């Protein structure tokens, strides 16, 4: 098939349409939704991969306007390199989670069997809608869809945690919407491309962007808005935890990147510094709390609090002065970190899910010696842990290396020290459960777990490592449509 | 003093008082009542701003359906004796929240005053293109044509919200009937209204969709009226809620969004995602709106009904 053959298919639209169509199918199907999802997931993965090929092939973002109405009247859908990278990572994680869950995962009774798959597909569709949206109000609608589905999946595990998540997320939505309304009132458009090309704008624009940012921080669980995340991600059912921690919290970060890099409102740098220091606090606080948890899923959940902190270092490192020669590399590093964390974190939660299914709990003290009976799962946990720590050859290593280079080149020595220290802390909190599981011990799994399900987290963990080994292809993809003014990063 | 200005100032003052009473009151039921009053005042404010469509939606959903939901929640709490001592936040938390809200309000006010006075937004672009949209009501043109993608996703949000509510069902009640069986005294007000109003409501609903293409109205407003008819029928005991295990009910929920999505996707293969050819746009939009109305009405009514509480 040629490039023009690909372009003849509405691949961009289909990445959003297919999961949403799936959800409308799965809702009436009830407990047959699992089979429908399993049939649809590989098709969505294929469409997403083809879209990435089309973006690479054409070397430019794919753009459409819904209804054929040009912006600012209509809504633009736009898939650039970063969209493609997030879409593909989402498709890989979602397919893995679907296979893992539908092939005999604990399904928690009649209600969850009949409602999980519509919510799963809604999450997938909402994420994809965020990644291809070129319109601020449309992003608000996509975020609402994402929040509703995510909160409902948390409620399977704990309604209390879901309620807390809902309050944080809805407050975040309202503040985000306030910012969007201010931008529209000031500029008469919601279109990110038009807003970006209109220049930095005035103070009102910066205040509006600050409102949007505050709202998104609550949804992204950046310190000090993290309080909802550990109980929500730590108590949700396994497939939900994997989706939430790997992907759902990345959507608000993705929008922040759109706002501060693609629209680029005027900033004195103070706001960017603030985001960076909140990131530093998240890395330290999340890591220290992860070390003190007694349940495996809570260790992984607090690790998400810490790892999200890294992403926000991109703002002081590359946000304030976008024309420095190393900012493009730093920016790419942060995106690499986000993608690698998505794959590795999904692997960790699925591995933890296997442990819970096998021994019936996830208390660390009761896991000694588990590696003897679940070698593949513990191995997957170990490989994913290497990626979270940011050790070579993982994708996170490339990400951290690019960010470190930028930090040192820009004179941000403190941030560089925190990045290295955070890696050591991650090693500390992940070696604790790993050491216990590898230790000689008495833990006997009560239930055997099929190998075809144990292999799923292993494949995800290997994908996180593979992102680092074959880094040049995703790196090239990320550069397509990148709006930073810097010519080339130092590589 | 100009009487219109006097009315506006009084309206704004009343809205602030109602909002403060809803937030600051100790009595939960009074808070709910003030919240409904606040919704009606805001609907009036939208009328004064000339946004009749928004006023309709605010009155129907903001004051009406949300009011029913809140009163329902209150009566459940009351039955459990949980309304007596609402566990309020500490005074430090209250001060912090008040301070944050006040500074946001001041910031927004400062920005708002500084905005260009001639900022018409997209209104001129909408006026310019409304002739091509198939409908003459600019609000419907925006919702169903210019920004149809947002509306499509919002209808899906509603269906997902219902799935989210259903996901809270206790396992042994999955597929059952939401709410308690309602009975009204024969010949009482509720029983009489339950027979008198529904036919009128049905007529108003059908008319609102049709009217929406040229004047205020449309699928969402009509659906709220139909959902109200549904609620009235249930409350007066004339009809019971359907079991959520029913395939017909679940197909009704997804029919509207599914048709809308299928139409949009068909367009994507033919060249334009969600594109409406100008010469047939009006017909297509009204057709989609009628199916959407049925789905949204059922979804709203079932959202208010809540999780299943009994088996058939």
Automatic annotation (TrEMBL), chain A:
Enzyme Commission identifier(s): 1.6.99.5
GO molecular function, one term: NADH dehydrogenase (ubiquinone) activity
Origin: domain of life: Bacteria
Record's signal peptide: none
BP terms from Gene Ontology: ATP synthesis coupled electron transport
Localisation: Cell membrane; Membrane
Pfam families to which the protein is assigned, alphabetical: Proton_antipo_M (PF00361)
Major location category of this protein: membrane
Alphabetic keyword roster: Cell membrane, Membrane, Oxidoreductase, Transmembrane, Transmembrane helix
Transmembrane segments: 6-27, 39-62, 82-102, 114-133, 139-158, 165-185, 205-229, 241-261, 273-291, 298-318, 338-359, 371-391, 411-431, 455-477
Enzyme class, spelled out: oxidoreductase
Any Gene Ontology CC annotation: plasma membrane
Mode of membrane association: Multi-pass membrane protein
Domain NADH:quinone oxidoreductase/Mrp antiporter transmembrane, residue spans: 133-421
Annotated family: Belongs to the CPA3 antiporters (TC 2.A.63) subunit D family.
Protein's UniProt name: NADH dehydrogenase (Quinone)
Native source species: Lutibaculum baratangense AMV1
Automatic annotation (TrEMBL), chain B:
Location of this chain's protein in the cell: Cell membrane
Membrane topology note: Multi-pass membrane protein
Coiled-coil region: none
Segments passing through the bilayer: 6-25, 32-49, 55-74, 95-115, 151-168, 189-212, 218-239, 251-274, 280-307
All copies of domain Na+/H+ antiporter MnhB subunit-related protein, residue ranges: 189-303
Start and end residues of each MrpA C-terminal/MbhD domain: 13-79
One Gene Ontology cellular component: plasma membrane
Record key words, sorted: Cell membrane, Membrane, Transmembrane, Transmembrane helix
Family per similarity comment: Belongs to the CPA3 antiporters (TC 2.A.63) subunit B family.
Protein name: DUF4040 domain-containing protein
Lineage: Bacteria, Pseudomonadati, Pseudomonadota, Alphaproteobacteria, Hyphomicrobiales
